[in-house]
Request: fold
Amino acid sequence: MQQDTPSRVSTLTDAVEIPTSLVIETTPAPQLLACVIVPAKNEAERLPQTLAALAAQVDFAGRPLDPRCYEVIVLANNCDDATAATARSFAQAHPHVAVHVVEVTLPPAEAHIGWARRLLMDEACRRLEHTRNANTFLASTDADTHVAPTWLAAIQAELGAGNDAVGGRILTNASPATRCAVHYQHLRDATYRILRARLESLVDPDPADPWPRHHQHFGASLALTPQAYRRVGGLPVVPYLEDEALYQALRHHDLRVRHSPAVQVVTSNRLTGRVAVGLSWQLRQWALLHQQQQEPCVECPRGLQQEWTARRQLRHVWQQIPEPSFAAPMIQEVASTLGVPQAALTHFLQASKTFGELWHWVEQTRQEAGKWLERWPPVPLREALAEVRQLLRQHDWLHPTQA
Reply:
């Protein structure tokens, strides 16, 4: 994506009002490899910094990327401020990067982040397919987020290694002193989730997502190939947590998802966000718990270890045994551990076209039964941190070659 003599081009659409689809009339550059999408609602203040970071992308040697190889689409949806005008001003002031600005007013039923990001990703995928170039990808970030200088280069490297999608590490700005308790809680939660990811990589290794890795696959830094996007039927249209829904769809189809530490962004830690459930919502929840002097609760690490062990065993049966009846003892053990009916598990072992489809059935059945949470209820974060560290030490002692 790098060239010695960048070609300076600028593409800017007129503001349009399209509630159900998004089409940019300008033809993509023939060299286009990456399309970055940025949903923006009332982000006039933060958007210029977001776009500036995207306009300053470099390769791993620090050389500017060929600006013809990537473009940015900003969707200013249902704004009450100058978000669209701010994006247009940036595009005019930085003609070396193709920045497309579309302004829409979505009807109330569709005025949420899931639909806005779906419109963007659909159009990004269409434009990439139009070029017929190999090794293309669509990348999502947010209007309050600054991507790292090598963000696109790192995504390209991970996808070039054979992955279908890449979740980037999402860091936050240092909290002001007035919110130090929330920042501390955020750090503790992140520590737990990183340690949990480490334990999962030891108990049930994923060849596509080896350690070191992290736990995030969210809209502020999420990329995938057009082929993967089409395979899962596009971004699920839900009012919030659309990124988590997309991740689950990718896993359902057994696509390779990499949680790459090399792909990084920094996002704002504001308490008032633009979505019903997201980082700002979580920060507010931690602030409320702090005021109430309560400890956040998370999934029990010992329960997770049992789940991942059973998942590894189940995958082995699904991959290696053409006739599950030959593996009846293991199926019985796995069914007992997960709390699902053995006969139904045997049936879905034979019927599932992907392991992700099988595991989705397991999770759904287990949730409906409700017995798993009775056996492994959430535990206070302090207790979970101590427990996951103990489990990691035990694993290192039992398996020193994996330490």
The chain has 14 helices and ten strands. The chain has a mean pLDDT of 89. The first strand starts at residue 34 and ends at 40.
